[in-house]
Amino acid sequence: MSYTLMFYESQEDFAARQDPVRQEQYLAGWTHYVHALREAGVVVFGSGLYAPDTAATMKRRGGEIAVQDGPFAETKEQLGGIFVLDVPDLDTALEWAARGPVDTVEVRQNIPALK
Amino acid sequence: METLQVIERVARDAYGRLLSYLAVNWRDLGAVEDALGDAFVAALESWPGTGVPDKPEAWLVTAARRRLIDRARRTRISEDALPTLLAMSEDAQRLAAAGAVFPDERLRMLLLCTHPAIDAAMRTPLMLQTVLGIDAARIASAFIVKPATMSQRLTRAKAKIRAERLTFELPDAEQVPERLDAVLEAVYAAYGSGWEEPAIADCPRSSLAEEAIALGRLLLRFAPREPEVYGLLALMLHCEARRGARHDGEGNYVPLSEQACARWDRRLMLEAEQYLNAAAQAGRIGRFQLMAAIQSVHAQRLTTGRTEWEAIAHLYEGLVRISPTLGAYVGRAAAIAEAYGAARGLAWLEVIPAADVVSYQPYWALAGHLYKQLHRLAEARSAYSRAIGLSTDAAVRRYLGRQAAELEL
Fold first, then answer.
1. How far is B189 from chain A (nearest CA, A)?
2. With an 8 Å Cβ cutoff, are A36 and B388 in contact?
3. Domain layout of chain B by residue ranges
4. Looking at residues B10-21, what average pLDDT do you find?
5. Helices B2-26/B29-50 angle, 10° precision
6. Each residue of B89-120: pLDDT tens digit?
7. Residues B79-92: pLDDT tens digits?
8. CA distances from B297 to A75, B140, B180, B304, B372 (A)
9. Are A94 and B142 in contact (CB under 8 A)?
10. Could you give the CA distance from residue B92 to residue B62 in angstroms, rounded to a whole number?
11. pTM to 2 decimals?
């Protein structure tokens, strides 16, 4: 079964990525986590995402396309990266979520590919 | 407001007792839970007006019983259930009148929750919900499980009890140790199995620790001759005594061997020692007594100023023989490393099959520590990294990060 872990980061986390003082510690948290995941052999795919202010959002309203700067929704925590894991069940996926270096992780099962 | 406090107190102190009493007679755990829940709601509605009854528990049992009768009539489950209910009702009235206390059926409930037919992973959650009245959402968080999933599993376990007619009867004398062992195991799982702390363990699931100790004390009343009950209680109390010392003033994680003994809770340690001594009187060793004895040796540092690692290694050797868990193997390797050197410790660590430890944090924390002592820097770096990546606790991650940083000096 595959599950997607969505890692939500605070503005502070996103700022730490650029901050010369905090950057190293921020990145180290991810390096170790990714290392543990890969060694456990459960990773299908994973990637970090650039900060939400770099996003572009397309919205179609009444047939007309509007493009806006920034993320779809302005919330305190924004998607910072995802991992797709191949694990037996949701319990195991949540266990990995608890080990992540951020405080909010949403876990959902992936719909199997259509044949 | 006082009424609300009385209801809260009764709910906290008597929920498990009331539920067990009703369930033993009625057998449909789900129905009894609903009925008792309704009875508490009814109490919230009527007590503020009528005043708290003299026997609040008897009032609640009567109210719950009424709900069960209504339900039985509505669903026409079985006619033969009614005599039981009527008997219970008379029982309740008699108990209310005589000023007697309800028979305590919680031991039967504990044994039912840990029945061999119940999935081992569900025994602790079932026990926490029925005997202590802890809600499914909190249990789910403690075990890092989706709350809806936990609720479903609890409902399924209760349905199984009903469908397979699992009994509330006390087991035969020769079965008692085996069945009791399952109860102890479930209580220990509630305490958080990371607490024995073999090496540089991750933070345990500690939010249920106090509840687990309460269950341990309860069990002691029911089984005062079983040394393993004392052993488990001693183990939990020794670990609990060090709770405050696990973090320094800045919230940094402090491993057991570096903890300031002055910050240990001596009252709890003393109590733990008394239980351990009581257990020894029976002359029957078991895994919980061994684990408690290991903690007892650590505790002796308070008076002697040093840790007798050879004694600890010896105790782990015994533990591995009767209870070969990953925690015991890693603990043994840690103790051997302290007593006889990192190389020997590592040799014992490496006998653990690699497939078993891909996501076992204490293994990698100890491996990092031992590789570092042996100046095998690349392996130490990698092991520490995995340990950090597997940790769920930020303070433990920072601690391991500092340990790993020393490699670069």
1. 16
2. yes
3. 3-104, 321-409
4. 86
5. 150
6. 666 666 555 555 667 888 889 999 999 999 99
7. 556 666 666 666 66
8. 52, 34, 26, 10, 26
9. no
10. 7
11. 0.87
**Tokens, residue B217:** 């004390």
User: Which of 1.10.760.10, 2.70.98.60, 1.25.40.10, 4.10.910.10 would CATH assign to domain B321-409?
Assistant: 1.25.40.10
Neighboring chain B residues of A29 at a CB cutoff of 8 Å: 388, 397
B385 touches chain A (CB under 8 A): yes
Q: Which chain B residues are within 8 Å of A7, Cβ to Cβ?
A: none
* Best of B361, B364, B397, B398 to mutate (most A CBs within 10 Å, chain A): B397
List pLDDT tens digits, range A10-37. 999 999 999 999 999 899 999 999 999 9
Burial group, residue B212, by CB count within 10 angstroms (0-12, 13-18, 19+): buried
B142 touches chain A (CB under 8 A): no
Nearest-by-Cβ selection for B385 from A31, A41, A95:
A31
Q: DSSP secondary-structure letter at B384?
A: H
Cβ distance A98 to B359 less than 8 Å, yes or no, reads: no
- Cα B165 → chain centroid: 26
Structure tokens of A90?
Answer: 């949701």
Bin B27: left if φ > 0, else alpha if -120 < ψ < 50, else beta: left
Residues A56-88, buried b or exposed e (16+ Cβ, 10 A)? eeeeeeeeeeeeeeebeeeeebbbbbbbebebe
The verdict on A88 touching B (C-beta cutoff 8 Å) is no
The pair of three-digit structure tokens given for residue B378, joined into one six-digit string = 């690349």
